[in-house]
Specification:
341 residues, alpha/beta, three-stranded antiparallel beta sheet, 11 helices, 38% helix
Length: 341
């Protein structure tokens, strides 16, 4: 069995060919797609976070809304850029959204991706300390956020408060038990995956790795996953919980003429190697073709086989109905053929 969800970047543009022409469209359609995913038997609705862009940004209002409109599926992010986050405010928002969703939140966080603006986190009031990089700052914010999710009190109570306090030091409220174990880190390298394990976070790995050893993308990612699990075992021992691992893929079974028009040319897709922020990176291919061909291709993907969760990246600007159609093809045809259902 494998968890299958969608991952939406929430793009919007006023172009006539887009079915998602405004920020309002992107938000309301995200909620509608999550509802459709639940009805289709998918397991998760995940959303990307990009600041200063015509894409989904502040995640917690959306996560709370999806939580209120669904009852079963996991609701998550992939990923929140921790350079931009105030850990205390984030802990409040995350706790509230998780309680609304009944404990279904799966929070993917990370250092973030290339930005639309220069050092955008500075506009949000976050500046690296002397000698600290922006990546260091993201990890510092993460460490504090994880501490807060632990639920220990730390703030000295006012001796004459407006409302009665419980005894002892106070914590951020609302607190949601169990959320700490549902935090994931988006890792772009094998070394970062090992660091993720040492922090006690689940692992998210996308369609991009910011390193390249010359082997196919799925094989490099499978090595990343194995190194993560080995590091988890070394750090936490045999009695620890079993951590979760997700990978993202672009998967488009061709079952009608719309699919063929949109993605027929992607049947010849291959891995791509390029340079991202000055680092050699490897990008995974798109899986498109007749259902049997997609099944065979995914069956050879070592990283997909190793992960417990598969996130399907969706072209959200093609509209809710079409993306629900893509998910249905995967859940109803591809997943059973691979033994995931």
């Amino acid at each position: 069995m494998k968890h299958i969800g969608f991952l939406s970047f929430g793009h919007w543009t006023p172009h006539p060919s887009s079915a998602t022409r405004s920020a309002a469209d992107a938000l309301t359609q995200s909620i509608e797609l999550a509802e459709a995913a639940e009805e289709l038997g998918a397991d998760g609705a995940y959303f990307r976070v990009h600041h200063f862009a015509r894409q989904l940004a502040s995640p917690f209002p959306l996560l709370a809304a999806v939580g209120a409109r669904t009852s079963r599926i996991e609701i998550g992010t992939a990923v929140i850029d921790m350079r931009y986050e105030n850990p205390l405010y984030m802990a409040e928002d995350a706790g509230a959204a998780d309680l609304i969703a009944g404990g279904r939140l799966q929070l993917g966080i990370s250092r973030g991706s290339p930005e639309q603006v220069i050092d955008g986190f500075r506009h949000f009031g976050h500046v690296p300390r002397t000698g600290e990089s922006d990546a260091d700052m993201a990890r510092r914010h993460t460490a504090r956020f994880l501490e807060l999710l632990g639920g220990e009190g730390f703030a000295e109570p006012n001796p004459r408060p407006m409302f009665p306090n419980p005894p002892g030091l106070l914590r951020v409220e609302p607190h949601s038990d169990g959320l700490r174990e549902r935090v994931w880190w988006g890792a772009g390298t094998r070394a970062t995956a090992e660091w993720t394990a040492a922090q006690g976070m689940n692992l998210m790995s996308s369609t991009l790795l910011t390193e390249d050893t010359g082997v196919p993308f799925h094989r490099l990612q499978a090595e990343q996953i194995q190194r993560y699990r080995d590091a988890w075992a070394r750090t936490w021992g045999p009695d620890a919980r079993t951590p979760r691992v997700s990978v993202s893929r672009s998967v488009f079974p061709i079952t009608d003429e719309r699919d063929r028009a949109y993605f027929g040319m992607e049947a010849a897709s291959t891995d791509q190697v390029g340079v991202l922020e000055g680092v050699r990176a490897r990008f995974g291919k798109t899986y498109a073709g007749e259902v049997d061909d997609v099944v065979a291709d995914l069956g050879r993907d070592e990283a997909v086989a190793a992960a417990d969760t598969l996130l399907l990246t969706v072209p959200n600007q093609l509209g809710v109905e079409y993306n629900a159609h893509v998910m249905e093809n995967v859940v109803a045809h591809v997943a059973p053929a691979l033994g995931w259902r």
